[in-house]
């Protein structure tokens, strides 16, 4: 993996931070991106702890022109991107009555349209090289809906649908596409959760929403560490035996397994690949 170039989104905290450091520890030249580079101190501290080096760049996945400029500048400076990790994500809580079209759109922008645009932008150079890895951090909520996470799950379903459709075609050009599905991970996701809609005093869903939040908090008490979840992302990005679908913990495997029998994505990948024979 020496001399490979990886770009990771959303590295100011959590899974993205540890993925960037984990890839750098494998000798990969990592460009760790975040929307506000003033928030790079925790990443730099972890790099110092692990004695690794990487490059930090600004990238907001919802600013598509800026994102394209960033990818072009990275390719010009470091060479073509070999590994793209679409990790950046955000979560809005609410049942559909709480979610206007703007709220649904915001979730699609960050969790679906941003990763789609970044992936489209790196595909030509990967296709010409006949190699490349695209790893997407999705969620168990990409395989099954979750109450009060309607918009989040929809955006993660969309990303997995896009990537699973792309996978057999990209594979014909030597490009590997994967999704990594964490369940609860102890990160800033809970602090960053946009749950404003759930706390209106006269909301008919309020009692149910409070029950949901209690369940979510209890799950968070058992959450996997960001470092452990990131180790699976690093494995998906670097393994010699790539596959489409990864879960980061037994809890994630159990939850994804409620909806899916094809837990590593191999059955769908093989069946869809035959459509191209
Ligand atoms: P986190 O600590 O909140 O990290 C999310 C990262 O995404 C942050 O760096 C955040 O940057 C960044 N981000 C948000 N909006 C962005 C944008 N528009 N452009 C660029 N970056 C943006 O949470 P995390 O758990 O590590 O989340 C990483 C991924 O794991 C997400 O895709 C999430 O959906 C997924 N996931 C998490 C869990 C969990 O329980 N934690 C479970 C399943 C899936 P700022 O610091 O600027 O906000």
From TrEMBL:
Protein name as annotated: Short-chain dehydrogenase/reductase
Pfam families registered for this protein in UniProt: adh_short
Organism: Embleya hyalina
Keywords: NADP, Oxidoreductase
UniProt keyword Methyltransferase present: no
Lineage: Bacteria, Bacillati, Actinomycetota, Actinomycetes, Kitasatosporales
Superkingdom of the organism of origin: Bacteria
Keyword Translocase tagged: no
Gene Ontology molecular function terms on file: oxidoreductase activity
Family, as annotated: Belongs to the short-chain dehydrogenases/reductases (SDR) family.
Listed Gene3D superfamilies: NAD(P)-binding Rossmann-like Domain
